[in-house]
Amino acid sequence: MIHYSSIEEVTLQESWLTIGVFDGVHRGHQEILRHLTEGAHTHAVPAVALTFWPHPAVVLGKRDDLKCLTTPEERAQLLGDCGVDVVITQPFTPELANLSARDFMRLVSEHLGLRSLWTGYDFALGRGREGTAEHLTALGKEFGYHVHTLSAVQNGGHTLSSSLIRQRIAAGQVESAAQALGRYYALSGTVVHGDGRGRKINIPTANIDYPRSKIIPANGVYASWAWVGGERIPAATNIGINPTFTPNKQTPNVEAHLLGFDRDLYGQMVRLEFVRRLRDELKFSSVEALLEQIRADIRQTREILST
After folding, report:
1. With a threshold of 0.85, does the pTM exceed it?
2. Domains and CATH numbers, the chain
C-alpha cells in the first residue's frame, strides 16, 4: 500500500476508486472495499481509496467535539490491510468543500484516470452534497467512469455507521463496537510517566499517551489485550480520573496493568485492544478496598481472556 497526503501528488491510469471518510474502516466499509479490490485486481488495475482529514463535519462546523475511531495513519493501514493499493488522505478544507461535484470529479479523473467508482448507499459529495449517485452517474458519462452503489450493512438491527460505533464506544459498549468493526477497538500510544501510584501499591500500570483526536471508551475498567512489539499480553485497563486519589482531574488517563509482565515500558509504543467492560470507575474509601477490587478485576480479566 502507498499512502499519499494529497491527490495532487498522484498520477494513475485506469484506476478503480472509492471515496469517503472511512472512519474506523468498519464492516460496512469493508464490504465496499471487498468489491473494489476484487474487481480492480481482476482487471489488473490499482484499487484506490480517497479519504479526508480533518473530518468534514469538524471543518464544516457541524461538530466541534468530534473524536474519531482512527487516526489517518491507522485508517490508511486498515485500508491497506483490506487490499487497497493506494490510499490518499486529502486535506479537507472549506475550499474543497465548496467545489461542485463536477469540478471535484474532474480533479479526480485527471489525477487517477478513474474508470470505476464504488460508493455506499448514502454517499454524496460536492457543494451542498449535490453529487448523489444519480448525479455522479451522469458525470461518469462525461469523464469516462461507471458508478456502483452498494446497500447498507446491518448490525444489531441498525444500519452500520461510524457514528453508531462512536456512540457505542463512548458508552463503554466495546463488545458491540467490536462486532461492528470486525475487530477489537484499539488505542495506541507511548508509555509515559504517571504519578507512580500503581507501583507503590505493587500493581504497576503503563500510562498510555493516547491521541487526543481519538474517542476513548467510557470511564471504567476493561479486560484488554496489550501489544508490545509483536507480543500480546493480557491487561486490566482503567480509563478515568482515579477518583479515590484525584477526584478533580478533568482529562481521563488510560492505564493498563499488564498481567505477568514486569519489564520497563517507558518510551515504548503499546497498543490496547478493548475486549470487555468489567465495571464503572469507582471511588473507594481506602487503599485496601481499592486493592481488593483491583485483584478481583485481574481475576476476571484472566478468566475472560483465557476463553
Report:
1. yes
2. 2-159 (3.40.50.620), 184-305 (2.40.30.30)
